[in-house]
Amino acid sequence: MYKSSSLLARFLGWLLIITMIAAALLVFAPAATAEIPYYLFATVNPAEARAREEAKARAAEESAEEARTARTWVTYYPDDPDAQVPDTQPISIFPDTQAPDTQPIVIGPIPPDTQPITVEPIPPNTQPIYVNPVTRLIGEGMTIASANVYDKMAKGSRVGSMKKGETFNVHQIAGNRFLIEQDDGTYGYVDMAKCNVDLYEAYHLAFETTRSADVYGSPKESKGLLLFTLPDDSDVTLTGFRGKWAMIRFGEEAGYTLYKNITVKN
């Protein structure tokens, strides 16, 4: 009876010790083994386990490097950030790098002032008359009646018309017509009798009488307005026109004579 009790006591004692050791291992074992590589406890080949561990470490390093050096590629339109320009490639916002496999970049639309200009042809029969750009501008005029515009200095075809009171620039005295430039930039010839013209002072022209010429105080044939009569071959200065009348100066005198009475001095 005594031996049985002693054995039971020993058994219970050992059971208590084992329980205490197991409890201690549960508390302290994770901390003690946290830094021990798992392959020391693995059932696989330790060399293979070590290789896997090293591969994981390399992969982690590469991932970290990629995250550190990553670049963001964006599409950037300086003129209009919201514009959707087809077929353009993104631009790197990092000037020291180049986007891989990018093509030459078109940045937004061409500014309006640099757009190519397409000039539409002028329809037939409405072509203006163009004059050599060096043709001088000698005066200004205004129509005193409705006037046709022609393409030639004599006869020619009608290419336009002007109402009474329209203004124009004068480039040339052409027979009994003026070569004019209209306000819209087109050129043509109008009959002298339909216009009043003032020549610029720099282009007051040297003329001479071709016959005995009466000079009047107004552009009108009236004995009461007669100032004097010029003999043939008298030198005069032409300063302008009032219809078919030429405005002239003769020395200190000035007046009007019919344009048919004078001609350009040779």
Q: What would you say this structure looks like, in words?
A:
The chain is an alpha+beta fold and 266 residues long. Among the domains are: 139-199, SH3 Domains (SH3 type barrels, Roll); 204-264, SH3 type barrels (Roll), CATH 2.30.30.40. It is built from 2 helices and 16 strands. The strands form 4 sheets. Strands 3, 6, 7, 8, 9, 10, 13, 14, 15 and 16 form a 10-stranded antiparallel beta sheet that branches. The chain has a two-stranded antiparallel ribbon with strand order 1-2. A two-stranded antiparallel ribbon has the order 4-5. The model is unreliable at 31-43, 71-77, 90-99 and 124-134 (pLDDT under 50).
How would you summarize the topology of this molecule?
Elements: H1 2-33, H2 46-69, E1 73-74, E2 91-92, E3 139-143, E4 147-150, E5 158-162, E6 167-174, E7 177-181, E8 187-191, E9 195-199, E10 205-209, E11 213-216, E12 226-230, E13 235-242, E14 245-250, E15 253-258, E16 262-264
